[in-house]
Amino acid sequence: MTAQQIIFLIAAIYTLASGVLTVTSRNLIHAAFWLISAFFGVAAIYALLNANFIAIVQIVVYVGAIAILFIFAVMLTRRDLRVSEHRLNKGWQIGAALAAALFVGMVSMLAQWSGFTKTADAFPTQFDAVGALGEALTSPNAYVLPFEVASALLLAALVGAVYVAFNPRADENSEAQK
Amino acid sequence: MIPLSWYLILAAALFCVGLFGMLTRRNVVAILFGIELMLNAVNINLVSFWRYGEITSMSGQVFTIIVFAVAAAEVSVGLALVISAYRRRNTIVADELDMLKW
Amino acid sequence: MSFWNDPLKVAAGWLEGILTGWGMNAIAAHVLTVFLGVLILIVLLMVLDIFLVWIERKVVARFQDRLGPNRVGPFGLIQPFADIIKLIIKEDTTPANADKALYNLAPILSMMSVLILWAIVPLAPVMLGTDLNVGALFLIAAGAIGTLSIIMAGWGSNNKFALLGGFRQVAVMISFEVPMLTMLLIPTIFAGSMNMNAIINAQNVWYVWLSPLGALIFLIAAIAELGRSPFDLAEGESELVSGFNIEYSGMKFGMFYAGELLHAFTYGGFLAILFFGGYRFFGLEQVSPFLAILILILKAMFGYWVIMWVKYTMMRIRIDQMLSFNWKFLTPLSFALLLVTALMNALLSSAPTWLYVSGMILANILTGWIALEIARSATRQERERTEGIKQPAEVRH
Prior knowledge:
Mean pLDDT of chain A: 83
Number of strands of chain A: 0
CATH architecture of the largest domain in chain A: Up-down Bundle
Mean pLDDT of chain C: 84
Oligomer: heterotrimer
Radius of gyration of chain A: 22 Å
Distance between the termini of chain C: 88 Å
Low-confidence stretches of chain A: none
Order of helices and strands of chain C: HHHHEEHHHHHHHHHHH
Structural class of chain C: mainly alpha
Distance between the termini of chain A: 69 Å
Largest interface: A-B, 90 and 71 residues
Number of domains of chain C: 2
Helix content of chain A: over 70%
Number of domains of chain A: 2
Shape of chain C: globular
Low-confidence stretches of chain C: none
Number of helices of chain C: 15
CATH class of the largest domain in chain A: Mainly Alpha
Largest sheet of chain C: 2 strands, antiparallel
């Protein structure tokens, strides 16, 4: 077993364990922190795949923005954060069976594919993946249109989120207090 | 070297864990946690296919970036909806948000 | 290749030779050597951190016309060690109903988010942790870990002041990340790379001459990210007692405190790397790597001194003022500056150096002036709206 394989196994087990704890832990704040730890594990997997830029962006976007939003949302939407409720709904056995069946199905389907056990060539040291990615995102022959659509989507989400979460009553109250 | 299958199995397992969370958690925010795990599993697949396929074609990484943008948009709108629903109904348990049911 | 020209590689090669000579696996020997290198770097940073405490207290004393610590040892040099002994023997309390795991993890993560930054700091042309090609983004990623540690501390303490302070600090940090990331793109545009070493090597002209406004915005965003005055409302003593670290005592508090000092010094270092030429100083860095380290540390100390200077001469501002300062002024300004810089860079790319530099400076001054004029007129309108239009004195009679 090579060093790379050991690192992969550690990162994979860490990620999966964090994922399982995310979906099962009783305290929602703990679930959020387990989710963050799963994000770190996935970033390690990206780094193993020589995708440095994606690994760093994973931390910046997921840990720096999305996870913080999650934690804020969890804290804002509960009166008593320590109440432990029934965390899973009544049909959880069906959910677990579905997920397990999907996993078995996916793996058995993939196992029949000829490229399943393929190994990659050594990563070319001269290749500038970050530069190539930047060119792919901005070149009209490649992906400039999806890139622009994604930015329009983010703008729409920004406006929509502000509109939905904006509380006109609270604003009136504060105006009245003035 | 690590064979491609390891990454694909990891991604499948993470996807199923996320699916389980999405199907069974009662809290809406926890359902969003499950969806994030599933999106991450998809991203692992995209990046590993980039690495094991043609490295000079950047499609895998580009799609990952697009998925990041979609995830950020989804979370911001989803959490805004959650906070708005909490303000009106005082609950974010999915079973109790049943105004559309009759 | 002698020890004085490339000390790290020579020392690592020597150690690896010894280890493999003992019959150790080559990969294991390499891992062990790298691990030892990281350990030495961290130990040196910690020693530096101890002296930063002394420097900070002495400089504050000068700013406030006092003497500072002067009892323990010559010039009070032993004072930080006395402080450490005090912190270690202090009782280490954990509040009742605290979230123990998160409460204890927070100070470690806080320190880690600072130490991890030194992985990409090029100390000398041949001495750097890792030659990451996305170094500028790494800075923001480490900042994200710092944000996480603060929210952990605020939540884990089970204290409403800690939670409020944590919320405030996180709001400030994620807001000021936007102008900071934008300003990191300006050296990236000039150098054509996000790699820290490439950015330093491209600085034949210090980037502070090409983008003085960019350096200023970076400094402001860095101070906000650090949570130092005038942006220290997270620990406003009069309203929040001490903010997110209120429940911490002993060495756990010491970790937050030391982390903050080292963070300030590190941002001084990044200011030096991104805008003041890093370890370069008129070719002196070619003489010896040790001289290059000295130059970088002196430049970082200068940045740290500026941050201290701002801290001890400015008053705290209110959170709504500071967030609207960020979102309504600093963020649009940094976007405009980025656009102008990219445009000027494209226009002047084939121009001689003097024209390039003067064009950049003019563009910066113009952008800053227009932004200030817009802000001034907006402020005037706001004042007229809240206070009513000032009537001339004779009309009132």
